[in-house]
Amino acid sequence: MLAYAGLLKNHKAATHWEFEQDFISRFPDVKLDCNALYVDDDRLITSAGTAAGLDCCLYLVRQHYGSVIANKLARRMVIPPYREGGQAQFIERPVPVSTQDARINTLLDYLRNNLNKVHGLDELSHYIMMSRRTFTRQFYKATGMSVGEWLLVERLQRSQELLESTLLPIDAVAEQVGFQSATSLRQHFKHRFDVTPSEWRKTFQGKRPTTANHLATNF
């Protein structure tokens, strides 16, 4: 409504991640922040979804009445007084399970079952019985990503699952999904989702996770 009224022209704004592209096409003169939970630009305040609207309301209370009142209200509502990170941690970026290329699909299955290993282009092109040049071209054509990009996305997605469903330490998660160190996992995770692995676990882990021993049999 604010954008249609022209009030957001040349101002920063936020909206739900599902509607980013539609918003951008409709209002090219608005500076959309695609990761913010809410934005306050010259007293024009916009938020990105139902829960983000609550974050925004707490922000307003904090601005007018201070942190003590805002924190008390947050406890009353059983919500965090302030959420770290932005929308990036909630955006769905599913990787297609299969492609239209049967040989590439066979390779994807192999890689998903061996994420903990280091993979080289020569090894993978030999596995799929293609020249290295043909393989890299066919892989990108089938997946829309380079091999390195695809592996990074898959490893981050697997790390999300492990953080949500197990008690494995961060370094063990990193080892199981193929990062060279816990530091590497933290760096890539923070860059992609704008939160740390520990913060992700705290946010998304619900019921008591499965044991590490049980997990080891599955992966």
Write the layout of secondary structure elements.
Blueprint: E1 12-13, H1 20-26, E2 31-32, E3 38-41, E4 44-47, H2 50-65, H3 67-77, H4 102-112, H5 121-127, H6 132-143, H7 147-165, H8 170-177, H9 182-193, H10 197-204, H11 212-218
Parallel strand pairs: 1-2
Antiparallel strand pairs: 3-4
Helix pairs in contact: 2-3, 5-6, 7-8, 7-10, 8-9
What are its keywords?
219 residues; mainly alpha; two-stranded parallel ribbon; two-stranded antiparallel sheet; 11 helices; flat; disordered C terminus
Structural commentary:
Helix content is 54%, strand content 5%. The protein has helices spanning 20-26, 50-65, 67-77, 102-112, 121-127, 132-143, 147-165, 170-177, 182-193, 197-204, 212-218; strands at residues 12-13, 31-32, 38-41, 44-47. The strands form two sheets. It has a two-stranded parallel sheet. A hairpin with a 2-residue loop joins strand 3 and strand 4 (44-47). It is flat and about 65 Å long. Residues 206-219 have low confidence and may be disordered.
Mean pLDDT across all residues, rounded? Answer: 82
Span between N and C termini? 49 Å
Order of helices and strands: EHEEEHHHHHHHHHH
Largest sheet: 2 strands, parallel
Q: What portion of the residues fall into strands of 2 or more residues?
A: 5-15%
**Structural class of the secondary structure composition?**
mainly alpha
Number of helices: 11
Shape: flat
Helix content: 40-55%
Number of strands: 4
Mind telling me the C-alpha Rg? 22 Å
Low-confidence stretches: 206-219
Task: Give the neighbour order of strands across the main sheet.
Answer: 1-2
